[in-house]
Amino acid sequence: LVRYSAEGLLQLGPLGSTAFLPDSKCLVDDGRTRVPALKKCEDVARPAQRLWDFTQSGPIVSRDTGRCLEVEMSKDANFGLRLVVQRCSGQKWTIRNWIKRGRQ
Q1: What is the CB neighbour count within 10 angstroms for residue 71?
Q2: Strand partners, 81
Q3: What residues does each domain of the chain span?
Q4: Banded pLDDT at 6 (limits 50, 70, 90)
Q5: Record's SUPFAM superfamilies (predicted)?
Q6: DSSP state of 61
């Protein structure tokens, strides 16, 4: 499962904890390539590389580079779509399921 945390992490792995679980990976924009990487969250050299800003029906923007996570058409990719990081083109994202924090 993919989750977006309040801290700005886009993580792939099991649910159940906000800590870095052994099988969790963070989506990273290294600033050099167009291909986002999945790396162990604790192994990312610069923590800002693993942080993203997201608003419902808006872009997903790397806090480190200012580039956007976007989808482009590709004959070579699964389902004909490829995930890339690039200069923002206006793509909008929606997260369907939310887990809201309870009142404290």
Answers
A1: 12
A2: 73
A3: 2-86
A4: low
A5: Ricin B-like lectins
A6: E
